[in-house]
Amino acid sequence: KVHPLSFEQRLSLIRNKVGRRLLEIMLKKQSNLAVAAVSFVIFNSINLILYEDVTTSEELLSIANEVGPQICILKTHMDIIQDWTESVSEKLVHLAKLHHFLIFEDRKFADIGNTVELQLTGGIFHIAQWADIVNAHIIAGPGTIQALSRSAEHCGILLLAQMSSKGNLAVQEYTQKALEFAQQYEDAVFGFISLGCIGDPNFLYFTPGVKLEGGGDSLGQQYTDPKTVIAIQGSDVAIVGRGIIQSSNRREAASTYRKACWDAYLQRLEE
Ligand code: 5FU
């Protein structure tokens, strides 16, 4: 299913303007790397937290600054930040402009449209004000997508078509359904969370669960290396969390991953 088109050629196929802006950033920075600002928690033997990471705004912003020059996207989980205020989103947007990356809030909307609209615009996070990209499960039907596109016209939407975790249910017919939904809402939806290309070059494919060493974690995450994901499975953007976040030198790790991911894309073009 992997198609042979370059990012330059895809520019004219993507209908959503955030998708096209992302492609322009990717080409300019030669980066198809997204960093996930994820938390990791280490428990001791009696289940007390020994160490936590990326749960403060200071840590989130410092990661954005460290990896910013290497990435096309910073993927956030705003609801793991313990001291979130509006000024955090303002500072994030400032860093995104400074380093030329887009902000993807990985909220994974999954409810009926009416609720999703409130979750997107309200609460204490006001996601629609600062996120360039948001994502949604298709489990509740197209109302979720309609709500997102109606109340955040400037946001691009990604649908979850496949997942990286063990035993997940986003397979076969479900994946096909996600593709159909995206094709129906092509002005708003510009891509998928998937394990690779699922067939249509008019969309971009974003793959989490990427680590140079492969492996997994103790809660079902399954890692694939950048070359397999991008050159063989046909994904466009690799999403890397702990592979970079847990490194003692995040700048260097981000640079290594950026090169590995871009080389894998160039390799795909040659085949
Ligand atoms: F939709 C998905 C998925 O199928 N797998 C994921 O891992 C999302 N993710 C996210 O990607 C997850 O919530 C993390 O933010 C990130 C992976 O982080 P890791 O530290 O590289 O495992």
From TrEMBL:
Domain Orotidine 5'-phosphate decarboxylase: 47-257
Documented EC number(s): 2.4.2.10, 4.1.1.23
Binding residues for substrate: D53, K75, S164, Q221, G241, R242
GO biological process: 'de novo' pyrimidine nucleobase biosynthetic process; 'de novo' UMP biosynthetic process
GO molecular function per UniProt: orotate phosphoribosyltransferase activity; orotidine-5'-phosphate decarboxylase activity
Active site residues according to the UniProt entry: D106, K108, D111
Pathway given in the UniProt record: Pyrimidine metabolism; UMP biosynthesis via de novo pathway; UMP from orotate: step 1/2; Pyrimidine metabolism; UMP biosynthesis via de novo pathway; UMP from orotate: step 2/2
UniProt name for this protein: Uridine 5'-monophosphate synthase
Organism name: Galdieria sulphuraria
Residues represented out of the complete protein: 244 to 514 of 517
